[in-house]
Write a structure and sequence with these properties.
Elements lengths: L5 H18 L8 H10 L6 H49 L3 H12 L19 H7 L7 H19 L2 H10 L1 H7 L6 H34 L1
Helix pairs in contact: 2-3, 3-4, 3-6, 4-9, 6-7, 7-8, 7-9
Amino acid sequence: SFLGDKPQYDYYHDIFIDEVAKKISDTSNLGIADTISRQVKNMNNPPDQIQNQFFELNKLNNQAFAWRERIMELNDTIQGRLDEIKDTVEKAADKYGLDKNLIMAVIIQESYADPTAVSPVGAKGLMQLMDETAKYLGVRDSFNVEENINGGARYLKEQIDNFDDVKLALAAYNAGPNAVKKHGGIPPFAETQKYVTRVLNYFEALSNEDNSKNNNISGNVSKH
């Protein structure tokens, strides 16, 4: 929500989320300006060019820290939302025979787990259901968390059954089943290709987190 209108959102989502977020844990990269600062201070009358470069790097350094704070804030917000819908997602996963982390991954990609989200084309709620699709799925209120998740999970399950492939099912969820059939696979749309990759990345991260928690629990039990 802090990224502004749609063009700005798309720009930062592609550039910032995909690139900077991967490196944000490497805090050493954020200290470049400090390192150069020490070097400049040790020089006698450093050239204007070096001073100017330092000032620019220092500005970037400060911006990086600001973005890091925003990432942490956004992460906390999303995690809080996911915690609130956890039980509903698990029930839908059991009902439709899906992995709960796959449903969660779709929710993160579709709406950042915001139940009030509305896309520029009118898709609504956590799993971004179009009105026509919602009607087909029997969803009366797309902003109702339980209805939206159950409708989206059912639609995702239908695509998995139709294509017998998770990647193709995700592509169909994003671009429509007819587009997948027409192209004989994931459509050559940049948005859809990124969509599939990102959902699978979220799914892998969520699954790894679950595995880590389970290993910790097993370790604690064995110690006692």
